[in-house]
Every structure is written in structure tokens, then in C-alpha cells.
Amino acid sequence: MAELARVGYSALRVEDVAVLAKVNKTTVYRRWPTKSELIADAIRSVAGFDEPLPDTGTIRGDLIELVRRSLAFARKPEGRAVSRLIVVEGGTPEVDALARLLRDQKRAKNAEVITRAIARGELPHDTPADLVVDAITSPLFARAMRFNEKIDQATIIALVDLVVTGAENVGKRGSRGR
Amino acid sequence: MAELARVGYSALRVEDVAVLAKVNKTTVYRRWPTKSELIADAIRSVAGFDEPLPDTGTIRGDLIELVRRSLAFARKPEGRAVSRLIVVEGGTPEVDALARLLRDQKRAKNAEVITRAIARGELPHDTPADLVVDAITSPLFARAMRFNEKIDQATIIALVDLVVTGAENVGKRGSRGR
């Protein structure tokens, strides 16, 4: 991640990572046959892919905590390196494939908080988990990572409340209007 | 836009645009003192900034039509040029400032469909217009422009319905749960 932050994806050489890690480059290649696999694993390890999901007992609490963690990551040097990778080096097939893979894995993991809310009876069975997660994370990520904007807690809560209230009530025609 | 599509923002020279337009470069500089202003106006003219907003009579209809137009634009050569600008050339201060300016103007314009829905009594007075617009456009734009994915009509309708239902019901504590 230090090397990725320093030189970016295109210029990163696995040999240099091996030198920094004080191992032989064959040791690196044995575990990560390609640069793309090495970087993907590095990002997974710093971006909380293996961290347990928040479990606050409510879908609003879980989603607010998920967003808080993501934004905290975006502010760290590792997060800046990832955002630089996506913003500055997007457009090359290798980087785009990597970005899509990580997005899909992160989204599938985050969707579990929706699955658990459905199991608790908090959300309808047919809640579109990917859409709910995307409607919350995508605008905040664009603001924070693409446009370098500070996101306040009130905005996070308002967006989570907007989308979760939608998920709770969509399909219930009787509750429309005020 | 043809020149932007051909060479990108950084390599674009106002002189070459003048040659293509068969005018003297001073003629271009008189109206657009900087490259950034020239490109901003070019994007505004092809990206529907001056087009009247949809007025279907319902907030769902208006938002679905707004998204349909944006996605149709993203598929055209001019839209690809804009997406290339944002994806490939992001990270330079000049491009980022331009992207932020255009996003702010587009978002303020789109927010008018929310203002009109509030005036019609379709949405509560305190509806957060920017959040509602962002929660719908941001995920679809990321999918279409960043990840080159095809968005089907069912996905557009589901996302608009999710977020608008949220806007209709948020704050009405009595309507929570099912």
C-alpha cells in the first residue's frame, strides 16, 4: 500500500514491493502470480474486507456504522491511495477490472446487513439489497473520494434514513402521500 | 466536443478548436477566455443543461425521464468524451474543479423537479432535494459511466421508487415497519 500510494498502479513493480518487504520476488510471485492479485489483496486487507460487519441491532445503526468506517478509510493514506487508483488511473482495462472486482466483493459483503435486517423482520423480504447499499454508499463515496468533500454526520443519517424508509415502505401503496 | 473526444482535456489546444470551427483563435478567446470555460460551455450545450426539465406531472415520472436522458447521453460519443474526462483525467485540479462546477449546476437544475413536487404537495416541504437527486443519479452514473454497465428500465424504476417512497415517508414515524 505504501508503494501504491507512492507511485500508483501503472508504475508499481512487484520487484520493488519485494525489496520493501525484504523478501525475494519469487516469494511474492508464489502467493500473488500477478500485480493485480497482489494489489487486490493489499486493498482488501486495509479496506476492512475481512472485518466483521457492524451488528448494532438495527438496519439504520448498521448502515450508519458501515458508512462511517468507509469514510474513515477514505481519509487515511491507504484510502487516498485507493481513491487515486480509481480516480487518476481509471480507464485502463486492468485498473477497471480490479475496481469492478473490489466493488462487487464489497457490495456483496455490505448486502449482508440487509439480509440480516430481512431476517429480523425489519425490512420486506423482497428488499433490493444491492440498490439499497448503492443508493447510500455511491453518493457519499462520490462526494468524499471523487470530490474530496467532508461529509458530516447529519448528512449520513439523513441519507440512511431516506433510503431505509424507502425500503420499509416501498410496495405498500396504502402508505403513499401525506 | 469532437476535439475533446479525440485528444482529451489535457492535450486539447484552443487553437486546434478554432481551426476545426474555421474561425480565428482570437474569436474563440473573446467568448471563452480559458480552455476550462470553453470546455464547460461545450459540455453544457451537449449534456442538456439548457433543455427544459421533464414535466410529466408526477415526481416518479420526472425522475425516471431525467435518468433516462442522462443515460442516453452517457451512451453517445459526447457522453463518452465527458466520462473519459472524469474517469481518465480526474485528479488534476483543473479537471476536478470543472467536474465539480458541472455537477453542482446539473444537481441544482435537477433539484427543481423536487421543488415542483413539493409545490404540488407530492413531497414534504423539508425534502432534502440534493440527497434525493444524488441517491438516484449517483449509483446509476457510477454503473454506467465508471463501470460501463448497461442499466435496464426495471432498475431505474426500482431505484426511483425506493428513494421517492423514502422521501414521501421519512419523518412519518407512524408509517414505519410492516
Automatic annotation (TrEMBL), chains A, B:
InterPro entries: Homeodomain-like_sf, HTH-type_TetR-like_transc_reg, HTH_TetR, Tet_transcr_reg_TetR-rel_C_sf, TetR_C. Pfam families: TetR_C_11 (PF16859), TetR_N (PF00440). Keywords: DNA-binding, Transcription, Transcription regulation. PROSITE patterns: HTH_TETR_2 (PS50977). It comes from the Bacteria. Residues 1-50 form the HTH tetR-type domain. Residues 13-32 bind DNA. The keyword DNA-binding applies. GO terms for molecular function: DNA-binding transcription factor activity; transcription cis-regulatory region binding. This is Transcriptional regulator, TetR family. It comes from Labilithrix luteola.
